[in-house]
Amino acid sequence: MYKVLVTDSISDIGLKKLYEHPEFFVDKKNNLTELELCEIIKDYDALIVRSQTIVTKNLLEYATRLRVIARAGVGVDNIDLDSATRKGIIVINAPGANTIAATEHTLAMLLSLARKIPHAYQSTSKGEWKRGSFKGVELYEKTLGIVGMGKIGTEVAKRAKSFQMKILGFDPYLSDERAKKLGITKASLDEIAKQSDFITFHTPLTPETKGLVNDEYISKMKKGVRLVNCARGGIIVESALLHGLQSGQIAGAALDVFEQEPPTNLDLLQHPNIIATPHLGASTEEAQEKVAKEVSEEIISIFETNSIRHAINMPQISGEIQKKMKPFLELGEQIAQLAIQLFKQAPNKIDIRYSGELIEEDTSLLTRTMIKGILAYHLSDSVNIINAFHLLKEHGLTYNIEKNAPNKGFSNYMELSLSKGNEIVVIGGTVLNGYGTRIVKINNYRIDVKPEQHLLYIKHEDRPGMIGLVGSILGDYHINIGTMQVGRETIGGEAIMVLTLDKKIDDDVIYSLKLLNGLEEVDVLELSKEVAVVENY
Ligand SMILES: NC(=O)c1ccc[n+]([C@@H]2O[C@H](COP(=O)([O-])OP(=O)(O)OC[C@H]3O[C@@H](n4cnc5c(N)ncnc54)[C@H](O)[C@@H]3O)[C@@H](O)[C@H]2O)c1
Ligand SMILES: O=C(O)CC[C@@H](O)C(=O)O
């Protein structure tokens, strides 16, 4: 049974699939302090939050069982991503599920700001009738600057166009082609400042966007500009906004998000030209159901099938690439497990070489899978594809990826070397179309082994009778040999045997084998089949 903790106000209808799933138990506990959360988090496999719960490094120290943190929404700035990644915890979100809600809220704020609706309502609800006090401005033929042309920025642009506004858009990823298609003008931040009557922000909070709207940027704006922020507090420096309002440089601002939430800056909140809502952008019934449904479904698929669609701390890989890469992921895992078992110690350098068809493929997940396979041998189950690179760095290992390495005559080929000083182990493998994975190289030996769960690796002198001797000892212990492959460099020199066996062999069999004359090394190798999958739409 997987235990899921829900700590913010999340739609029960959206969580229905989790409630009804026999393998999941959902606990809803709102308004917990960090201390209370630290006390209980150890009991849970998954945590679902909105923006209120702050998932700190300290909290994650107690989260010994946690595998998934789900943000029922978009922004993950309330989650310590680095700490989650280091601990191998997948962080997922529900991108897109609240786009329309946040877009409509932005438009509502824009119109309310232009027509002073909240102020007029406040006055009218007190019985006043001050028709002269709330004269507004029109959106018609005004210029709207949009900073951040992602999902919400784009939807805002489409709707603002119906008011016949001229739209200027700034986003590092906005191409000329997309701007043209949307019927907007691509502009720089300075052009937006100089030309816009209204500016709305739709970026995440990043080191680049934090404090973007400061005294200097405000001074570049058109006098009487109106600002809307329904993205993240901190994009606008609140003290600079207040100066701008006081000086008349800014005619008004509509804020849904604040530097600190709940906000304490009453000078700003009570300024007559401010309108504010308490982070309501995503607060519609529809959006809340959608975000909760999306994260519930993803949690179920992560625990049931290991498949991840919207991981924040993982590369996004399309479902199509996933499918295509599946046999290579299996081979990568097998190669990594064999290499680390044969290396018998922790390496300090990892070299991965891809050739043939693999040169053209997105191998990021494959590389992670191999690194995970290598590290997991010594660092246990706490290693996964999420924290593989973190742990690699933490343990001082270096790695090198070469694409376009010699392909040894196979249509696809991958090779892994583990090394430390003069010690090195090299394993090469390929996927044979329709026949599955094959190990085709161990150190300098060419072989052809179909990887199985139980393998025996023997290094011996290349002389007559060795194969028979090994076979008869295994026979004496009733161990059935599935396949046997031999490889040698020179006649009469050193050779290897790789056997696949039907069951694991005991120490006494190894002991008997080691007594054989001419046998230099015997290693029992075990392969597990667990391969992580990441999906994306
Ligand atoms: N108020 C709310 O309740 C609410 C609801 C939903 C989303 N949001 C917030 O709205 C913001 C936008 O959400 P989205 O779903 O559109 O995200 P998105 O990822 O689709 O779009 C963000 C865009 O910002 C752009 N960007 C990043 N850095 C930039 C920079 N320095 N200058 C200009 N553009 C930059 C990105 O290229 C991207 O296109 C996020 O911060 C999200 O957390 C708030
Ligand atoms: O959960 C919320 O209400 C806020 C959502 C919003 O800020 C987001 O980034 O998705």
From TrEMBL:
<dbReference type="Pfam" id="PF02826">
    <property type="entry name" value="2-Hacid_dh_C"/>
</dbReference>
<dbReference type="InterPro" id="IPR045865">
    <property type="entry name" value="ACT-like_dom_sf"/>
</dbReference>
<dbReference type="InterPro" id="IPR006140">
    <property type="entry name" value="D-isomer_DH_NAD-bd"/>
</dbReference>
<dbReference type="GO" id="GO:0004617">
    <property type="term" value="F:phosphoglycerate dehydrogenase activity"/>
</dbReference>
<dbReference type="GO" id="GO:0051287">
    <property type="term" value="F:NAD binding"/>
</dbReference>
<dbReference type="Pfam" id="PF01842">
    <property type="entry name" value="ACT"/>
</dbReference>
<keyword id="KW-0028">Amino-acid biosynthesis</keyword>
<dbReference type="InterPro" id="IPR006236">
    <property type="entry name" value="PGDH"/>
</dbReference>
<comment type="similarity">
    <text>Belongs to the D-isomer specific 2-hydroxyacid dehydrogenase family.</text>
</comment>
<dbReference type="InterPro" id="IPR006139">
    <property type="entry name" value="D-isomer_2_OHA_DH_cat_dom"/>
</dbReference>
<dbReference type="InterPro" id="IPR036291">
    <property type="entry name" value="NAD(P)-bd_dom_sf"/>
</dbReference>
<keyword id="KW-0718">Serine biosynthesis</keyword>
<protein>
    <recommendedName>
        <fullName>D-3-phosphoglycerate dehydrogenase</fullName>
        <ecNumber>1.1.1.95</ecNumber>
    </recommendedName>
</protein>
<dbReference type="InterPro" id="IPR029752">
    <property type="entry name" value="D-isomer_DH_CS1"/>
</dbReference>
<comment type="pathway">
    <text>Amino-acid biosynthesis; L-serine biosynthesis; L-serine from 3-phospho-D-glycerate: step 1/3.</text>
</comment>
<keyword id="KW-0560">Oxidoreductase</keyword>
<dbReference type="InterPro" id="IPR002912">
    <property type="entry name" value="ACT_dom"/>
</dbReference>
<feature type="domain" description="ACT">
    <location>
        <begin position="455"/>
        <end position="536"/>
    </location>
</feature>
<keyword id="KW-0520">NAD</keyword>
<dbReference type="Pfam" id="PF19304">
    <property type="entry name" value="PGDH_inter"/>
</dbReference>
<dbReference type="InterPro" id="IPR029753">
    <property type="entry name" value="D-isomer_DH_CS"/>
</dbReference>
<dbReference type="Pfam" id="PF00389">
    <property type="entry name" value="2-Hacid_dh"/>
</dbReference>
<dbReference type="InterPro" id="IPR045626">
    <property type="entry name" value="PGDH_ASB_dom"/>
</dbReference>
<comment type="function">
    <text>Catalyzes the reversible oxidation of 3-phospho-D-glycerate to 3-phosphonooxypyruvate, the first step of the phosphorylated L-serine biosynthesis pathway. Also catalyzes the reversible oxidation of 2-hydroxyglutarate to 2-oxoglutarate.</text>
</comment>
<dbReference type="GO" id="GO:0006564">
    <property type="term" value="P:L-serine biosynthetic process"/>
</dbReference>
<dbReference type="InterPro" id="IPR029009">
    <property type="entry name" value="ASB_dom_sf"/>
</dbReference>
